[in-house]
Amino acid sequence: MPKNTKPAAAKSAERAKPTKPAASATSRKPFLIGAAVLVAAGVLGMASYQATSPDPRPTVNDAASTAEPAGGGHPEPAQLARRDAKDPLAQGRPDAPVVMIEYADFKCSYCGKFARDTEPALVKKYVDNGTLRIEWRNYPIFGAESEAAARGAWAAGQQGRFWQFHAAAYAEGAKEKGFGGDRLKALAEEAGVPDTGRFARDLDSDAAKAAVKKDQEEAYGLGASSTPSFLINGTPIAGAQPMDSFAQVIEAAAAGAAKK
């Protein structure tokens, strides 16, 4: 891979100005998911990530100042796991002791790095033995093509091919080809989506738009300020951290769950 010339603090997450959800966006308890990394010593360290877009992301307080939810109250981050056995954008046992929620964008380079370099190892080590469940949340922050790719991933999921689409969209060099209409169709074919006509209809459906918006609102309400961002049983990790960083948090969460 070409040498990364970004500052050291910018090497594991990307920031951009997201499209703020419509007025119906929920406001959740501010949580420094996008600016916090749990380090080995157990200290929640603060880190600033440089944007690939020239536009700054809103601060956590800005994100938390969106409209209050109609019913009031704020779900805790640890309560955001859906644990839906039929969720096509998740993998792992619904009753796994640890749930990792990933907020990511298909145009995010570091999301792709995580998908290629770290996630397969997490699946092999923790998902396959029932310890970990991974739940994906679409958090498109890099404009119209990000939004289209998110809807395409959701549409692939309606035919049971989300993770195959995910792999195709995050393959080396994939994002450089863009995520226009023809490209999304090609990715669906590469992912083995059986009915590309249905895929095209689902891609532009109100249901796809609503699903992506729901995920965006969740991330925005948390104050996520970079992609990828993660919650592991409520503990935040920002950026494509090394395998050991995820392993430490997952194993600590599993040990904590075993004591309950």
Structure, explained:
By secondary structure, the chain is α+β, with helices and mostly antiparallel strands. It has a domain of 169 residues: Glutaredoxin. Helices cover 38% and strands 12% of the residues. The strands form two sheets. Strands 3-5-4-6-7 form a five-stranded mixed sheet. Strands 1-2 form a two-stranded antiparallel ribbon. A hairpin with a 5-residue loop joins β1 and β2. It starts with 35 loop residues before the first strand and ends with a helix.
Architecture blueprint of SSEs:
Elements: E1 36-38, E2 44-46, H1 60-64, E3 90-91, E4 98-104, H2 109-127, E5 132-138, H3 144-157, H4 162-169, H5 181-190, H6 196-203, H7 206-222, E6 229-232, E7 235-238, H8 243-259
Parallel strand pairs: 4-5
Antiparallel strand pairs: 1-2, 3-5, 4-6, 6-7
